[in-house]
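FW: tagging you since you asked about this chain on Friday. Here's the raw sequence from the shared folder, copied in full. Didn't touch anything.
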Amino acid sequence: MSVGSSDGSAPRVSVLMPTFGQAAFVGRALDSLGAQALGDWELVVVDDGSPDDTRAALAPYLADPRVRYARLAENRGLGAALNRALGLARAPLVAYLPSDDVYYPDHLAALVAALDADPAAILAYAGVKNEYRVPGKGVLRDGTSTGQIAGFPLQLVQVLHRRTADRWLEREELVTDDLDRMYWARLRARGAFVGTGRISCEWVDHPAQLHKAVRESTGGLNPYRRRYQVPHPLRFHSSESDLIDEVAHYRRFRERPDTPRAADGLTIVLVGELAFNPERVLALEERGHKLYGLWTPDGHWFNTVGPLPFGHVEELPRADWQGALRRLKPDLLYGLLNWQAVPFAHHVLTENPGVPFVWHLKEGPFFWGCPVATALPHSRCTRAVSGEPSVRSGGISAPCRWCTAPMRSQVGKPAAGAARVRKSRCYGHVMM
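HL: got it, structure written out here
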């Protein structure tokens, strides 16, 4: 490996490494950079408010004078982390090594050679290995490409470009998984993109990848908000969804002051998830009740969880929610539920005996039968009834015993076995 000059002059390449919560990956990424045939590089690591021990994982590598580390006090998103790194970079060429990805030994050398061979080019990109591999089953999806992976923009790990005054789109402007929209499109206006035609890096597939938190098929608006604890409304546009503009949609709620606490105001903890309708809980706040939020950790993109974008609800910590509830001494636990949030709400209920609990099932489940029974296989709503079929394959043994109307599907047609089932999807019995 050729090593860059130690006379204080600028290196040939600045490698930017944004990282969040990936202490388990970062050592492998840094080892792959250290093995580069081209050694005239500097590494700028920007830790975007990681909650794990990323700093400790990086510690052995910080003795290398080519490696610099900066930490943002709180998570601000990919664009802000990259812009901070760009501000610290010194080289005329910029490459990217996300902390969960890997370079092969000739990666930087091949990219630099591609730009050197074409002075009119602004960006060079490598081929990339990308596999979805499951232990014991092998490779289930292979996206490996000598250029751009089908269905995705050029990935950070593939790219080296000439330095310009352009900056990455930041979270306050838009959240998206579209890197063209975030940055590459700006560079396209400045010159050609050239490929090396050689696979020299790996875009590592794993569940915690950023694009999976953004795309609705694997994440979406609310899982993204939950993972990164975003305290403000978002403009959110994934490659699989329409634009969601919470800034405009919730402005009228956020801009009004909190309602003063009424003399008979209650301390109410909202438990579960909210979906899309703030009016259903802000009506309580507008009557002078104090609202707190305790949200399911397993929501989907359509399950609104805190920090709530419309304000007026104080978040309770997930790390010690049991202790927080004991200290708060709420007057009422209010379960706002789609069926996915029922198990967590049930856990909160059983941990707080004696505190009144309201089950508000605002939408029906995507299965037949009682929504509580659907989500809680061991609840009292699921006691076996001789001759009654299961309402979900491999799940509960019977629909709700407290109802009498025929069970029906979401589109209104009788469910399979309805002639033998004298029970219905139940809402009323879950008010406690």
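FW: The chain has 13 helices and 17 strands.
HL: agreed, and The domain at 13-206 is CATH 3.90.550.10 (Spore Coat Polysaccharide Biosynthesis Protein SpsA; Chain A).
FW: great, closing this out.
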